[in-house]
Design a protein that fits this description.
Layout: H1 9-18, E1 24-27, H2 34-50, E2 54-58, H3 61-66, E3 71-73, E4 83-88, H4 91-99, E5 104-107, H5 123-133, E6 138-141, H6 149-153, E7 159-161, H7 164-167
Parallel strand pairs: 1-2, 2-3, 3-4, 4-5, 5-6, 6-7
Amino acid sequence: MMTDERVSADALMGALTRLPRGAGVIFRHYSLPPAQRRALFDAVRTIVKRRNLVLILAGSARTARAWRADGWHGRSPGPSTMLHTAPAHNFREIRQAELAGAHLLFLSPVFPTRSHPAARTLGPMRLAALLRQARRPVIALGGMTKERWPPIKQTGATGWAAIDAWSGPA
């Protein structure tokens, strides 16, 4: 699950309780003032740790380590002792993320999404072509839902992530 400022704190906390075993959370909330962002991160971490989920902080590896996240999400390199996830939208960005040491890639947008309404989508065919070239596991992102996952799984994606699919009503 990717967090987003559009989702209220209550909806976010509810979504965390609905995530399946083995899931992870990429905590974003970039626009919050630093103290508020940290406080919300700590509240999310409490639930995530209780449920044995993975918590990744979007930002630098240094901040992720200081905040006791399991890893960081971003394009910059960092210590190999932490989980590193990175965004990618095309072949060039896939290679850049791999060279930066990312362990897991988030490839998007697969389908139209509220987060990036004007973005050109990959669609299943282009996603499959990019997956064949990736050297790391790839999570499909962008307009993903549990109903859209089965055919996308056939492309070779490792998993899927979303904001709205998890943060809406239960």
